[in-house]
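Reminder to self: tokens first, then the designed residues, so the page reads top to bottom the way the pipeline ran.
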């Protein structure tokens, strides 16, 4: 049918009729003679005061106009749009329907060879969407954005001037750095092809190569070029902004009694003024961390107590000042006296949410915090109020959070030292060090993630990067450090001696090969020497009784047909002597 046959639908006030026409027009690449009809129906749904216009009709109308001669008017509309206000007004702005408009405009600007306008459009919130790639394994908009990035790489080869080609590529990488863009595994393949074609056309003029690499998260060193990536920096102003946001938006919110009560908040803030800490531990999270063999059962209190005690003990040996946040039930743990002697313990009642207070304490002391909670609900609440707060919170979390992966096995229980993953010693955003760009690659589908990757925001040993720069003549001789460490090298005091990599590795089982009496005395358990001597003698007598359990034949007598086993003596249990069998 001709488009003239659909002109009657313009007079129809039913929005579904116009939506039907707009969907048909979006699929057409070139309108040719039907451009006037397309502009007429598009402008009919676009109202300068679009309060009464349906959101999907409004954005689809703009998408149709991007293919017409009025596309520059759409650019003016997007520039004048109050995205800060719209980001808080969910009724109208929906990034899923606004992103196609900015992508289509970007392709049109690229087609018109207007590079400045292209990057200006990509800098609008309707394109970058305030997204944090580490929070999203897979998002519908990633594919659309990656399509535009690929179009830019293809357009670079069409530029006749080499300097312009290199300038546009550099500008694209700088955009990745500014808006924290993580690419897929297909992007490096296209970059390799682009650089290979450029080297063929401009021999001895282009010395750029693209390689897949990994970054040692302990030292921040690239395994390809050997350059060290910079640290993530959080300024004092950003810290104060986060503290105020956590207090006002997360803890107090619309109703403070939903998370705590005003009196407890005042007491905790007064408590934090007394001093600073090196580490804040989420006691509940550590205590009830699942261990093998207890996945479907309730974790016994004794094992929970031992796990928390070993975690605190690891940092106590390093003379770190530790704050443990827990509930009053901690007093019922068998190892509570030891925990209380090695760390400062703060207990909240059963009503208060402990996670926001954990964040507040870490921000106040500017220290690390140990928890396996990804804090999704708090990040979502902050991002709803202000997308910048969501980005800043994730940036701070990656820099300060320590993850717990399990505990060492001692005898038959997992009650040994904890296995920890400390924060990376480098920034996890696209970064340029020297002449080399380092672009992180997204983790991909959640089904392809390992158990550790799925539990952490960033895990350096398996996180792939893209290294773009001059040819590397010799590969880096540095080895990846896969063993866990006791304390990050970058957190050492400036006056303290430099810690070697061998010293930085985790405590192994050597410390566990101690006698029972010596270990218990180190933990503060007092057992009288007489009782120790009695049990030593008792074990020796029992061993002798076991050796005599078989009747031996006297010399010259006939051998017995059956050896009679004697009954073992009655064993007096340790609990009958008043000894705590749990310890």
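Designed residues (583 positions):
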């Amino acid at each position: 049918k001709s488009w003239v046959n659909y002109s009657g639908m313009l007079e129809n006030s039913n929005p579904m009729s116009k939506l039907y026409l707009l969907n048909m027009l979006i699929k057409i690449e070139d309108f040719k003679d039907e451009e006037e009809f397309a502009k007429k129906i598009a402008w009919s749904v676009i109202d300068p005061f679009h309060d009464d216009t349906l959101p999907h009709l409004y954005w689809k109308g703009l998408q149709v106009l991007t293919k017409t001669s009025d596309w520059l008017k759409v650019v003016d509309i997007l520039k004048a749009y109050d995205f800060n206000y719209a980001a808080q007004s969910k009724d109208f702005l929906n990034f899923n329907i606004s992103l196609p408009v900015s992508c289509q405009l970007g392709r049109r600007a690229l087609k018109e060879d207007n590079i400045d306008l292209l990057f200006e459009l990509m800098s609008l919130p309707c394109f970058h969407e305030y997204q944090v790639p580490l929070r999203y394994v897979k998002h519908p908009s990633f594919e659309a954005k990656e399509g535009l990035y690929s179009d830019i790489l293809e357009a670079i080869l069409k530029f006749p001037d080499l300097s312009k080609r290199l300038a546009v590529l550099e500008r694209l990488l700088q955009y990745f750095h500014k808006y924290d863009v993580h690419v897929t595994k297909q992007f490096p393949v296209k970059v390799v092809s682009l650089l290979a074609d450029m080297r063929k056309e401009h021999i001895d003029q282009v010395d750029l190569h693209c390689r897949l690499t990994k970054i040692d998260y302990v030292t921040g060193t690239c395994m390809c070029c050997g350059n060290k990536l910079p640290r993530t920096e959080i300024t004092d102003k950003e810290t104060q902004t986060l503290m105020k946001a956590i207090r006002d938006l997360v803890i107090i919110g619309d109703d403070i009694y939903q998370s705590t009560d005003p009196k407890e908040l005042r007491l905790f803030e007064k408590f934090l003024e007394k001093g600073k800490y090196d580490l804040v531990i989420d006691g509940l999270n550590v205590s009830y961390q699942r261990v093998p063999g207890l996945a479907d059962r309730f974790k016994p209190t004794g094992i929970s107590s031992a796990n928390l005690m070993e975690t605190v003990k690891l940092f106590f040996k390093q003379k770190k000042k530790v704050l443990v946040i827990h509930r009053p039930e901690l007093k019922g743990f068998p190892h509570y006296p030891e925990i209380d002697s090695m760390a400062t313990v703060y207990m909240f009642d059963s009503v208060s949410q402990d996670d926001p207070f954990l964040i507040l304490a870490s921000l106040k002391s500017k220290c690390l915090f140990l928890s396996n909670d990804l804090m999704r609900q708090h990040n979502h609440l902050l991002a709803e109020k202000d997308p910048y707060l969501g980005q800043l919170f994730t940036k701070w979390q990656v820099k300060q959070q320590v993850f717990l992966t399990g505990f060492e096995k001692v005898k038959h229980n997992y009650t040994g030292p904890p296995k920890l993953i400390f924060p990376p010693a480098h920034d996890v955003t696209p970064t340029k060090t020297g002449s080399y760009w380092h672009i992180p690659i997204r983790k991909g589908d959640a089904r392809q993630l390992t158990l550790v990757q799925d539990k952490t925001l960033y895990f350096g040993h398996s996180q792939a990067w893209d290294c773009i720069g001059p040819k590397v003549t010799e590969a880096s001789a540095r080895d990846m450090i896969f063993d866990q460490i006791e304390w990050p090298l970058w957190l050492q005091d400036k006056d303290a001696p430099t810690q070697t990599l061998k010293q930085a590795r985790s405590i192994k089982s050597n410390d566990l090969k101690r006698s029972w009496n010596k270990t218990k005395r180190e933990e503060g358990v007092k057992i009288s020497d007489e009782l120790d001597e009695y049990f030593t003698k008792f074990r020796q007598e029992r061993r002798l009784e076991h050796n005599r359990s078989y009747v031996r034949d006297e010399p010259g007598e006939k051998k017995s047909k059956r050896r009679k086993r004697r009954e073992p003596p009655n064993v007096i249990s340790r609990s009958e002597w008043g000894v705590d069998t749990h310890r």
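The chain has a mean pLDDT of 77.
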